Amino acid sequence: VNCILAQRLVRRLCPQCREPHPVLPEIDEELGLRTYQPEGELRLWHAKGCHACGQTGYKGRSAIHEVLVMDDAIRRSILKHDDAGVIQEHARTGGMRTMYEDGLLKALKGVTTLEEVLRVAEETPNGTV
Questions:
Q1: Fewer Cβ atoms within 10 Å of its own Cβ: the N or the C terminal residue of the chain?
Q2: How far apart are CA 49 and CA 58, in angstroms?
Q3: Beta-bridge partners for 24
Q4: Residue 129 has pLDDT above 80, yes or no
Q5: With contact defined as beta carbons under 8 Å apart, do 117 and 64 qualify?
Q6: How many C-alpha atoms does 12 have within 13 Å on its Cβ side?
Q7: How many angstroms separate the CA atoms of 53 and 105, rounded?
Q8: Residue 1 DSSP code
Q9: What letter would DSSP give residue 106?
Q10: How far apart are CA 43 and CA 90, in angstroms?
Q11: Is residue 45 within 8 Å of residue 20, measured between CB atoms?
């Protein structure tokens, strides 16, 4: 095994009618959004609805995903039967982005909404989905 891929589908915002809204400071603080967009105004996007999307505000789907690349440290942890937290720590040290983080990035870019990301990939206190 060289890598493990996990993905979930979120609804894609309609590019014709999506609307940006500034992020409230308490939302930024709770989710740490500034980590994902250090510069500029933080904006999240919302579905409005138009003729192109059948008044739903969404058109199509997009994947949010995470890829765990099997390096030597992760292989050793698996062979030692380490718990998932230890394995995830090795993966994060190696640069793995979680599905939740990928979703937050896509929400900030206007691909989907924060609500969609939280619906399919809510992060737990230890950083797992």
A1: N
A2: 7
A3: none
A4: no
A5: yes
A6: 10
A7: 23
A8: -
A9: H
A10: 32
A11: yes
The closest of 38, 64, 48, 65 to 14, measured between CA atoms, is 48
Two structure tokens written together for 54: 């059948």
pLDDT at 17: 97
Instruction: State how far the Cα of 100 lies from the Cα of 118, in Å rounded to an integer.
Output: 8
- Please give the pLDDT value at position 1: 85
Q: In the block, which residue shows the tokens 């995903």?
A: 65
Q: Residue 121: which of 81, 63, 67, 79 has the closest Cα? A: 63
**Locus of tokens 């095994």:** 1
Q: What is the mean pLDDT of residues 6-35?
A: 94
Cβ atoms < 10 Å from Cβ of 79: 8
Quickly tell me which residue has 């720590």 as its tokens: 89
Averaged pLDDT, 26-40: 90
